[in-house]
Design brief:
It is built from twelve helices and 15 strands. With about 475 residues, the protein is of the alpha+beta class. It comes from Rissa tridactyla. One of its GO terms (cellular component) is plasma membrane.
């Protein structure tokens, strides 16, 4: 029974055993490939396989006359090994090469071991990094660059390391300098624009609340929009403060600023979820029952729940300096954010949290669209609804529910620079979209506020509709 399982386990493992004399007069050369494993050089396949060059210094320093050299080539996809926690890069061809000479640990070599990883042209926006498996990192080990130098080439990358262990070439998705600088400039300018239109949105909602004091449902809707606009203002302000003050700040200041930025982002996500929840009540449940201090309870959730998450994340030391690097490892920007050691916190509190909100809000958006189309067909909504106006209202509702943030799930990878531009620009315009949506929806040219929730409900108490 153990035979087939063992064969499957060893399917991705290939080993070469060599007995090398201590009196070797030149470097030892070995070739390897992910498919054929390690072997002695074959000049007919020049450039098609990787190379391992062991310096003669290594053998001359050994006490025994003859030593055994073991070269192991592993396919980690088949073996399910060497999986680092929160690993962002990928291993070239899923290949890890292990080298041992004799029975002693070898380190501090003056003439380094050279491994040449053969590959074709790599995708743009990828940085190559020679790494080895360090058992001292974390509980199960992790990739480290200590003692290794990366020399990139067109058809291969040379890794020069001063010790022996398991090596690989890690491909990390990193932006080039020009793209990173352009994105930072777009994000900074967009934050200013978003803040301005968010202020306009809040002012517009306050004026409407004063005008329609007796319309309780309308006042609740506008109150939600005010809080969402406020969260956008705080988020953009936190980003501007972060990008301007993060360089040269004290560690505790950076932790506070990172926690503040995280809190503002979570508040923005939470208020989009509350907008979707309110739409659900209006369209599906028909908010006919009175909820005592309804808006106050929403504010407690919208501003309180993110604070609870940030306190827990801060208690485990998640915040600190986060560096944005270029392909040549030069630091473009330093931000106070969740550190690289706690990426799991980012995946859970940001990606996972927003993922759930996005799924719920898109379901609500589908219900809203379906109900609106039914009302238009049955004539429940009076007034001239032009196609462009309906499309604009739908697009505004789409942004109101935070759909533009969903592009962050597409920004991971080696070819995500165009998506990063789209993501940055659309989220910078989110405040503008919401403002235009509110103006079109709440300030019609005629006296009949077509599409307004309060007027539709008066026409048909049983209709589960809303476009606020």
């Amino acid at each position: 029974l153990a035979g087939p399982a063992l064969r499957n386990r060893l399917a991705g493992l290939k080993v070469l055993l060599l007995n090398v004399s201590r009196a070797v007069t030149r470097d030892v050369l070995i070739t390897f490939s992910p498919t054929e494993g390690p072997r002695m050089p074959n000049m007919t396949e020049k450039g098609k396989a990787g190379k391992i060059q062991l310096p003669r210094e290594m053998f001359q320093s050994l006490s025994s006359r003859t030593v055994r050299v073991v070269v192991t080539v592993l396919n980690i996809q088949q073996l399910h090994m060497f999986k680092e926690v929160n690993q962002t890069g990928r291993v070239l061809d899923n290949t890890v090469v292990g080298i041992t000479v004799g029975e002693t640990s070898i380190s501090g070599l003056r003439d380094p071991v050279q491994l040449t990883f053969a590959h074709g042209q790599l995708p743009p926006g990828v940085t190559r990094q020679c790494v080895f498996w360090d058992l001292s990192k974390g509980t199960a080990g992790g990739w480290s660059i200590s003692g290794c130098v990366t020399q990139p080439g067109d058809k291969g990358t040379v890794c020069s390391c001063d010790h022996l262990t398991f090596f690989t070439l890690l491909l990390n998705p990193v932006l080039d300098r020009s793209t990173a600088q352009a994105l930072m400039a777009v994000a900074t300018a967009g934050c200013g624009v978003a803040m301005a239109f968010s202020i306009f949105t809040i002012a517009f909602c306050i004026l409407l609340r004063c005008r329609f004091r007796l319309e309780e449902t309308l006042r609740i809707n506008l109150g939600l929009h005010v809080n969402l606009g406020g969260s956008l203002i705080f988020l953009n302000l936190a980003f501007l403060l972060n990008s301007g003050l993060s360089n040269g700040t004290q560690p505790w200041t950076c932790k506070v600023l990172g926690g503040l930025t995280h809190y503002c982002l979570l508040c923005c996500f939470t208020w989009t979820a509350l907008e979707g929840f309110h739409f659900y009540l209006l369209f599906v449940k028909v908010l006919g029952t009175y909820i005592h201090h309804y808006l106050a309870k929403l504010c407690l959730v919208g501003w309180g729940f993110p604070a609870l998450i940030v306190v827990v994340a801060g208690a485990i030391g998640s915040y600190g300096e986060y560096r944005i690097q270029t392909v040549d490892h030069q630091v473009i920007a330093r931000l106070c954010w969740i550190t690289s050691k706690h990426l799991l916190v980012h995946y859970i509190t940001n990606c996972g949290y927003f993922g759930l909100i996005f799924l719920f809000n898109m379901a609500v958006f589908g219900v809203v669209t379906q109900k609106s189309c039914c009302l238009q067909a049955t004539g429940a909504v009076q007034g001239d609804r032009k196609a462009w106006k309906v499309a604009l209202v739908a697009a505004g509702l789409f942004c109101l529910l935070g759909a533009t943030w969903a592009l962050m799930f597409l920004t991971y990878g080696t070819s995500s620079a165009p998506v990063l531009y789209i993501f940055t620009i659309l989220n910078s315009l989110q405040g503008i979209f919401i403002f235009i949506w509110l103006v079109v929806l709440y300030y019609p040219k005629t006296k009949e506020t077509t599409g307004s929730l309060s007027h539709i409900i008066r026409h048909d108490k049983t209709a589960t509709v809303s476009q606020d």
